[in-house]
Amino acid sequence: xxxxxxxxxxxxxxxxxxxxxxxxxxxxxxxxxxxxxxxxxxxxxxxxxxxxxxxxxxxxxxxxxxxxxxxxxxxxxxxxxxxxxxxxxxxxxxxxxxxxxxxxxxxxxxxxxxxxxxxxxxxxxxxxxxxxxxxxxxxxxxxxxxxxxxxxxxxxxxxxxxxxxxxxxxxxxxxxxxxxxxxxxxxxxxxxxxxxxxxxxxxxxxxxxxxxxxxxxxxxxxxxxxxxxxxxxxxxxxxxxxxxxxxxxxxxxxxxxxxxxxxxxxxxxxxxxxxxxxxxxxxxxxxxxxxxxxxxxxxxxxxxxxxxxxxxxxxxxxxxxxxxxxxxxxxxxxxxxxxxxxxxxxxxxxxxxxxxxxxxxxxxxxxxxxxxxxxxxxxxxxxxxxxxxxxxxxxxxxxxxxxxxxxxxxxxxxxxxxxxxxxxxxxxxxxxxxxxxxxxxxxxxxxxxxxxxxxxxxxxxx
Amino acid sequence: xxxxxxxxxxxxxxxxxxxxxxxxxxxxxxxxxxxxxxxxxxxxxxxxxxxxxxxxxxxx
Lengths: 462, 60
Ligand SMILES: Cc1cc2nc3c(=O)[nH]c(=O)nc-3n(C[C@H](O)[C@H](O)[C@H](O)COP(=O)(O)OP(=O)(O)OC[C@H]3O[C@@H](n4cnc5c(N)ncnc54)[C@H](O)[C@@H]3O)c2cc1C
Ligand code: SF4
Ligand code: SF4
What we know:
Largest interface: A-B, 30 and 25 residues
Number of strands of chain B: 4
Oligomer: heterodimer
Strand order of the largest sheet of chain B: 1-4
Structural class of chain B: mainly beta
Distance between the termini of chain A: 14 Å
Number of helices of chain B: 0
Bound molecules: flavin-adenine dinucleotide, iron/sulfur cluster
Helix content of chain B: under 10%
Shape of chain A: globular
Radius of gyration of chain B: 10 Å
CATH topology of chain B: Alpha-Beta Plaits
Largest sheet of chain B: 2 strands, antiparallel
Number of strands of chain A: 21
Helix content of chain A: 25-40%
CATH architecture of chain B: 2-Layer Sandwich
Structural class of chain A: alpha/beta
Strand content of chain B: 15-25%
Number of helices of chain A: 12
């Protein structure tokens, strides 16, 4: 049943589409505006010579089968098939335990054996800390993970494992993640399950969401860029949409239309949305003007301060092909002793159609420190050298090297530092990886954030 | 076609170029196979590709 209200969504990334699908099912009239020719943002397949590369993601869902995303997709009626990793992961250690690299060979261990090398005392500490966190008996406060953990356990190997896990899942060093966030992530893996790969890759999720939106009367427009968010009387009144087809971009034309709605959702991050604010932040025309204005100004200033603290994470994905499968299982291969590469996975272990017949598609991910962005070519070279070491003697063909940072990052906001979905305007919400929920890796965090925004919206409009 | 400083090297453009004119290694470079067809313009998330015609001028 239609509710007679209109919601406009800026951007067709995963967060925008999840929100759009849910609102459309709830009776909202939904319009999504995407500035590119491509739907799905950083969660889309790109076909390159028969290989299904991606605009961002590694074709993986972090928590299967019961994580936030798959639960929401089920509720929405999306038909998506995932294959849970089996084993969840293996860890590649140097053959000689004294070595700090793979030059003299390696030995892969099952992830459940990750504490095997530890002393009895450290193992006991690990069990105590996990138990206490689960029972809420300890609170690491605002300490970062390694800083907190190293107070109890001194183990270099575990720090390397933590770095490769954080690098793969969040594109951060483990000590850039608050301890509470990391512990919540680990608890969620136990609660919801670990990673899974998606049959057909990222685009399978996107095409199902598009189907649900459209079958519920929603509209998705591509090649339409939002150039301003127009504010009046303390709320958002409209957005300005500019045509951005190839012709418009060549001719640099400005065909603008103003679109009004009751509710505005932005999938492009807090800062990027803020940059689009047009007109006075506040201009009440009735009521207790001064008091209202004062309250609003306080909220507005607080928000601006929060925006200053936001940082986006950076990373490099290398997609490569091989004639033989170099990853022997459907899970993640962590490489804590590589120079840069944190982990790898191969979508063709579950879905051979993601590469030309007889070929395999493998992707590696590495974190990039924000202080290394000026010398990105060296970072790429180090990643490529890692692949040479990891697969020495094997033929591999590099298909694509993709760098993500800044406005097109791995993650719009460092995990654990998200500032929620709200803005100073009660009818404007932010969704996507710039507004994740706690303990959610990547798209799981996006889903948690979307669910939170939807529950606020329900409270406000029902 | 001209690649400006907004480019982060995300590689989203290169697979859509039918001419194989884009190489991406930390940053996109467009080589002389480019026919100025304009397809890549609508795939760059950073608006880092700008139309420049054969005389080196953007069409207005
Ligand atoms: C290398 C890499 C590997 C990753 N691997 C994984 C993984 O395996 N699993 C996982 O869960 N996550 C992974 N992620 C993270 C995941 O891909 C992202 O978190 C997710 O796709 C971001 O979705 P989003 O909702 O924030 O929207 P985005 O993907 O950022 O989409 C926003 C959309 O808005 C559009 N837009 C921007 N400005 C405007 C405007 N002014 N007007 C109109 N439209 C606009 C953009 O074009 C875009 O389509 C990875 C990311 C990267 C980069
Ligand atoms: S304009 Fe066309 S030919 Fe030139 S780089 Fe872009 S897509 Fe390729
Ligand atoms: S799509 Fe844009 S930002 Fe990405 S590599 Fe191409 S030109 Fe650079």
